[in-house]
Amino acid sequence: MDLTSSHASPVLTDPVPISKSRLGMHSGLLSYSQQDSSSPLSSSLSPVKYSRTSSRKTSGNLDDVRSNGWLDAMKASSPPSKKHPNKAFNSHIDSSELDYSSWLLEYPSALDCFEEMIEHAKNKKIAMFLDYDGTLSPIVNDPDRAFMSEAMRSVVRNVAKCFPTAIISGRSREKVYDLVKLTELYYAGSHGMDIVGPASHTLSNTHPDCIKSTDQQGQEITLFQPARDFLPLIDEVYKRLVEKTKDIQGANVENHKFCVSVHYRNVEENNWTVIGQIVHDTLKDYPLLRSTHGRKVLDIRPVIDWNKGKAVEFLLDCLGLSEGDDDVFAIFIGDDKTDEDAFKVLRERKGGFGILVSSTRKQSNASYSLRDTSEVMKFLEMLVNWKREEENKQQQKRHSF
Ligand SMILES: O=P(O)(O)OC[C@H]1O[C@H](O[C@H]2O[C@H](CO)[C@@H](O)[C@H](O)[C@H]2O)[C@H](O)[C@@H](O)[C@@H]1O
Known about the structure:
By secondary structure, this protein is of the alpha/beta class. It has helices at about 40-45, 50-55, 60-65, 70-75, 95-105, 115-120, 150-160, 175-180, 200-205, 230-245, 270-285, 310-320, 340-350, 375-400; strands at about 125-130, 165-170, 185-190, 195-200, 210-215, 220-225, 250-255, 260-265, 290-295, 295-300, 330-335, 350-355, 370. The strands form two sheets. Strands 5-6-4-3-2-1-11-12-13 form a nine-stranded mixed sheet, sandwiched between helices. The chain has a four-stranded antiparallel sheet with strand order 7-8-10-9. Strand 3 (about 185-190) and strand 4 (about 195-200) form a beta hairpin. InterPro entries: HAD-like_sf, HAD-SF_hydro_IIB, HAD_sf, OTSB-like, Trehalose_PPase.
């Protein structure tokens, strides 16, 4: 990416004047207009909200974290799906189950509504987008052990044989590939900031952040890395966060190449504010980075106008599926706040829908829901079976002529 160029780039120009000396970058490209409204954390931690002078004055005061309301967000992220008896009715009816059932009226189960849903996709080209953690693999305490089952792998492989399929993850592209291990798919790592898509000569010739390349099998591919210039900054902040959190038991910082994850799932709850404050204070020195909130994780990422939604649009473009929207039906399955950007794109685009994986009530841009990874697997199986039946029907039709 040419940070001094004037052609279209996902790096937005921000009117807030900040020092550009750190990266020696051109003034017009360093800042950002805050886009991620989904996260209370990101809005409170955003460098945009703090002028450089005022932010320097607010030093490590835990009240920052509490009063900005994002301690609540930390607590609320990834709530366990606990069942508790409904005391009000003095019965064994589980109130969280009742809650969930009423929520399902708004976000119907993609399994129960499969026929209705698939009706919209009939005679269209389906494109499948999948998140990884919490969607293809259950949430576990150790991010390095978030394996997907062989059964899930096999279903995802079948899906990819039927439809163009991509995994869009918050993890680095390499890490998510190591976990998925399927060559039949396209991968977008670092929340879509590192994409390997099918060869698109139009895109790689015209898009400033696209490179034509070849994969290990010698196949031509399109590589898209809009945040490449942020690599040294990401490395630096990663090292600082590792250092600053090293004495907090359970804290875990992951380097995902174009973003950094600070996990607090295994940290004692009364230390969450400390984690939040560390991230908050560290980001004051990095106005080119912002944070978003995932499931018991704070993700630090470049302030570029790029997210999973943009990655979906980009991949549809690569696949030659972005024109003639009416012929294309895109499905995105995800469980996290960062997946909301993709759900929103599909909602606005109309040719497709988002499916939220959740066992608790959540406000979402998705249209349907699935309860957990086992339901995701069932849904994917249904989709593959449906496609095979459709193909059989077509074949029979052809033979009968
Ligand atoms: O976009 P995703 O593929 O869903 O990635 C989002 C984050 O996933 C990982 O963390 C989450 O899953 C872990 C393993 O189950 C869990 O321990 C953690 O609490 C979750 O937040 C990954 O480690 C993060 O870097 C990603 O941002």
